[in-house]
From TrEMBL:
Involved in cell wall formation. Catalyzes the final step in the synthesis of UDP-N-acetylmuramoyl-pentapeptide, the precursor of murein. Residues 110-296 form the Mur ligase central domain. NCBIfam families: murF. InterPro entries: Mur-like_cat_sf, Mur_ligase_C, Mur_ligase_C_dom_sf, Mur_ligase_cen, Mur_ligase_N, MurCDEF_CellWall_CoF430Synth, MurE/MurF_N, UDP-N-AcMur_synth. It catalyses: D-alanyl-D-alanine + UDP-N-acetyl-alpha-D-muramoyl-L-alanyl-gamma-D-glutamyl-meso-2,6-diaminopimelate + ATP = UDP-N-acetyl-alpha-D-muramoyl-L-alanyl-gamma-D-glutamyl-meso-2,6-diaminopimeloyl-D-alanyl-D-alanine + ADP + phosphate + H(+). The lineage of its organism: Bacteria, Bacillati, Bacillota, Clostridia, Eubacteriales. This is UDP-N-acetylmuramoyl-tripeptide--D-alanyl-D-alanine ligase.
Length: 449
């Protein structure tokens, strides 16, 4: 970390410092919310959760080397400093903002209804060819994860890519106040979190809150193929930079070839140039992610060769369009999350692969009053695209099965009991649902099939 003293931290969060005057100048080495991760010099965040109260572990953290704790109530018999605050969660946001302001580097904020993580990884792969780049780890993209991501930025970071996820109005504003991006990248405005956001216009409004606290002279990198984003014609006195497959976009693609597991090849076209790349991932949608990264890289003065090497160094993470080959099946493990837009993109990928096409799809959460109609239309999309067999799981997904003329199951155990009779050697099987559906259990079952 860059030097960050207890005095600075207390001032940043407006907390009451309790401890010796000499310790006010002590610097921290990391910020941890998990007592098991404490090391010498750590700052411990005492957070009260649903099952565990971090305040119960403060003294243990002191023993493990923590130099200070942020807490809402004073620890008993504290022998080391602590900073008392009304809310530890609010405090960490203020501390994350203060730490971010120690850096004068390119920071890319990434959001959208679909493709946040894959675009973040693509940006990281490209920017890493020139800069020592920091990125969001795992799913740390919310109002606790974002400040933790900022606070883990190493002293010598030269660029950062921060994923920003929201589910309601106002959240993006709070995230952007911390991140203060110099580049704002938005992927797609889709049907997600409609329970809170109402419709796609609401999604657009919530996502574009990112622009409010962007740094002066920030660049706005938007998907010009998206009918909502293309309506954004000016932001803070600047014209957005549009990317997308359509040639109307300044950053667009030509000669796209989907080679299944061999990746997607295409020409990235911008500034009169044509960069031929082979993206090591399935799905034509990855081309848009590569274009977004090329736009940021180009604006940062990266060479064509650096951009090409970066795109071709991309790696998928977790259960996101991860291809698993077994002795009998090809599994597209994409069960991290789902909404109608992302499911349709995954279906497009499925039908481009070899073998009989099978889609195992589950409930998509937080879709609001139109949730049943959206499940039905998603099933119909699969049928119209030529998916050979659609199997759905969950109460909402019953409508999906109707739209697809597929089979419906109440739960994971029920479908797994019948999968051996339904699947054939050589099938390509897509597994996708909202994360709460725990479809990773189906993926694990299929691995042993």
């Amino acid at each position: 970390m860059k030097p960050f003293t207890l005095q600075e931290i207390a001032a940043a969060c407006g907390g009451t410092y309790v401890g010796s005057d000499e310790m006010k100048s002590a610097v921290i080495t990391s910020v941890e919310r998990d007592s098991r991760m404490i090391k010498d010099g750590s700052l411990f965040l005492a957070i009260k959760g649903g099952r565990v109260d971090g305040h119960d572990f403060i003294n243990k953290c002191y023993e493990s080397g923590a130099v200070c704790a942020i807490c809402e109530k004073a620890p008993e018999n504290a022998e080391k400093p602590y900073i008392l605050v009304p809310s530890t969660l609010d405090a960490v946001k203020k501390i994350g903002k203060a730490y971010r302001e120690k850096f004068d580097i390119p920071i890319v904020g990434v959001s959208g209804s679909v493709g946040k993580t894959s675009t973040k990884e693509m940006l990281y792969a490209v920017l890493s060819q020139k800069f020592k780049t920091h990125k969001t780890q795992g799913n740390l993209n919310n109002e606790l994860g974002v400040p933790l991501t900022l606070l883990s930025m190493p002293e010598d970071a030269e660029a950062a890519v921060i994923e920003m996820g929201i589910s309601g109005f106002g959240e993006m504003t709070r995230l952007t106040e911390m991140v203060q991006p110099t580049f704002c990248v938005l992927t797609i405005i889709g049907c997600c979190h409609l329970e809170n956001l109402g419709d796609r216009d609401g999604v657009l409004k919530a996502k574009t809150e990112m622009f409010k606290s962007a740094r002066d002279n920030a660049e706005y990198i938007l998907n010009g193929d998206d009918d909502k984003l293309v309506t954004v014609t000016e932001v803070n006195g600047k014209k957005p930079v549009f990317f997308g497959i359509s040639e109307k976009n300044p950053y667009h693609a030509e000669n796209i070839e989907n080679n299944g597991e061999g990746g997607v090849s295409c020409d990235l076209c911008f500034d009169g140039k044509r960069l031929h790349v082979v993206i090591p991932a399935i799905g034509t949608y990855m081309v848009s992610n590569a274009l977004a990264a090329a736009a940021v890289g180009n604006l940062l003065g990266m060479t064509d060769d650096e951009i090409i090497r970066g795109v071709e160094a991309f790696k998928t993470v977790g259960s996101r369009a991860n291809v698993i080959n077994t002795a009998r099946l090809k599994i597209i493990d994409d069960c991290y999350n789902a909404n109608p837009t992302s499911v349709q993109a995954s279906i497009d990928t499925l039908v481009n692969l070899t073998g009989r096409k099978v889609a195992i799809l589950g409930d998509m959460k937080e879709l609001g009053s139109e949730e049943l109609a959206l499940h039905y239309s998603t099933g119909k999309y699969a049928k119209d695209k030529g998916v050979d067999l659609v199997l759905s799981v969950g109460p909402l997904a019953k409508e999906l099965a109707k739209g697809a003329d597929g089979l419906w199951y109440a739960g994971i155990e029920a479908i797994c009991a019948e999968l051996p009779q339904l699947l054939k050697s050589g099938d390509t099987v897509l597994v996708k649902a909202s994360h709460s559906m725990q479809f990773e259990k189906i993926t694990e079952f299929l691995k042993e099939f």
